[in-house]
Amino acid sequence: MESFKQNDGNRDELIIQQQRDIEKEISDSTPLVGELLPLTCLWAEYNGDDVFTAKIQDLAKKYKFIRRTRPDGNCFFRAFAYSYMEYLISNTSAYKEFQKLAEDSKDKLVELGFPSFTLEDFHETFMEVIRRVSPDNPGGHNKVQNELHKIFNEQGYSDYVVVYLRLITSGKLQEEAEFYQNFIEGDFTIEEFRHQEVEPMFKESDHIHIIALCAALGAGVRVEYLDRGEGCIVKAHDFPEGTEPTIYLIYRPGHYDILYPN
């Protein structure tokens, strides 16, 4: 019996080590947020796959570029933040509204019961990132765009932005728990879902995360779903419904990247 336990232990350790090796390979080979690429680069990924090739052709009628994010479970939040800030650096009035909302968000989270000392560093870094990508910064749009890209590829800053957006999402779920409970599958309470599926890093995101974050920030997102669904048209979903999107994402099972309309 002892030898079986030992073998099980060795097998578990091997699985964990393999997982770490895979994660290291991904982080070594994939930037947190990549460069702008022509959308047609997706054809190389699905070469010979008629279903996906037809759908990419449909997508190419609406979008010109794609920007990849690292597939680490944080891709939705990272793609959302990068794309939204990219929009804000070209829209001064929207930027100022968002800056005020972000500034006030910490006090709102504290009111909801989040510990102030936990929030402090994340909020401070979040506000620093927002200041560094202000459209009023000297050097013009290209310089601010370069600064945005640099920040989002520095693990410390990039991950702090993700953490803070996760906390904002969790806060929204708590604030409107009765409404969001309807979206949760299984026996999760809102409290359990927030602590297990929203706040921890590397946890993948679903519709409920998107709906709550959009509602909290007053942002509109269009997600294009590239999958094996029927037909050769890529289905899009706007969050919240009826909102004019400012953020465009592509979803492939388990992963989000950023899209750029024609």
Uncertain stretches: none
Main-sheet strand order equals 1-2-6-5-3-4
Oligomer: single chain
* Range of strand content: 5-15%
Spatial separation of the terminal alpha carbons: 64 Å
Question: What pattern of helices and strands is seen along the backbone?
Answer: HEHHEHHHHHHHHEEEE
Category by helix and strand content: alpha+beta
Helix content: 55-70%
Radius of gyration: 20 Å
Tags for this model:
262 residues, 11 helices, six-stranded mixed β-sheet, 6 strands, alpha+beta
Would you give an account of this structure?
This protein is an alpha+beta fold and 262 residues long. The chain contains eleven helices and six strands. The chain has a six-stranded mixed sheet with strand order 1-2-6-5-3-4. Strand 5 and strand 6 form a beta hairpin. Helix 5 runs antiparallel to helix 6 (116-132). 31% of the residues are buried. The mean pLDDT is 92.
Secondary structure blueprint with pairings:
Elements: H1 2-29, E1 33-38, H2 42-45, H3 50-60, E2 63-69, H4 75-88, H5 92-111, H6 116-132, H7 140-152, H8 155-175, H9 177-180, H10 190-198, H11 207-217, E3 221-225, E4 235-239, E5 247-252, E6 255-261
Parallel strand pairs: 3-5
Antiparallel strand pairs: 1-2, 2-6, 3-4, 5-6
What is this structure, in a nutshell?
By secondary structure, the protein is of the alpha+beta class. The chain has helices spanning 2-29, 42-45, 50-60, 75-88, 92-111, 116-132, 140-152, 155-175, 177-180, 190-198, 207-217, and strands at 33-38, 63-69, 221-225, 235-239, 247-252, 255-261.
